[in-house]
Structure formats: structure tokens, C-alpha cells
Write a structure and sequence with these properties.
Layout lengths: L5 E7 L2 E7 L5 H7 L7 E5 L2 E2 L15 E6 L5
Parallel strand pairs: 1-5
Antiparallel strand pairs: 1-2, 3-4, 3-5
């Protein structure tokens, strides 16, 4: 039985990544893999701000562009 491999070339914060996965990869999974704190991260996906409730339902495709912005508190 052959295993399907998903391959993505994505741009995250102006850095190219080539991702291989055995299942479709969501924005949520990529953000967790890159160790971004999900509750403090704003994601721009292909030029649009993503609703955090939809992170698990939006899957990557080759040539997607993401900007990950982390909110930092301070005084």
C-alpha cells in the first residue's frame, strides 16, 4: 500500500519552507510546529487576516504566503 505524501512550498515571514506531510497540513499545525503561541499570534494568509477559529480548517497549498505576528505586552 502506497502512502500519499503531501508537499508544500510556502513562504512564512519572507522565509521559504518546503514541507512534507502524510496528511494535509493546516495553518494551525504549521503554527504549532514553528512554536508560535497560538493565542498571541495574528496570521495573515495570502494577504488576508485569518480568523483564529478557522486555523484548523484552512489547509496549506503550494505557494501560500503567511505572515505570523506575535503580540508582545510591555510597558
Amino acid at each position: 500500500m502506497a502512502i500519499k505524501i503531501f508537499s508544500y512550498n510556502v513562504l512564512v515571514n519572507h522565509q521559504k519552507y518546503q514541507i512534507f506531510s502524510i496528511k494535509p497540513c493546516s495553518i494551525y499545525e504549521l503554527t504549532k510546529f514553528l512554536n508560535y503561541p497560538l493565542k498571541l499570534t495574528i496570521i495573515e494568509f495570502d494577504g488576508r487576516i485569518c480568523n483564529s477559529f478557522k486555523f484548523k480548517n484552512i489547509h496549506l497549498k503550494s505557494n501560500n504566503t503567511l505572515q505570523l505576528l506575535t503580540v508582545v505586552g510591555g510597558g
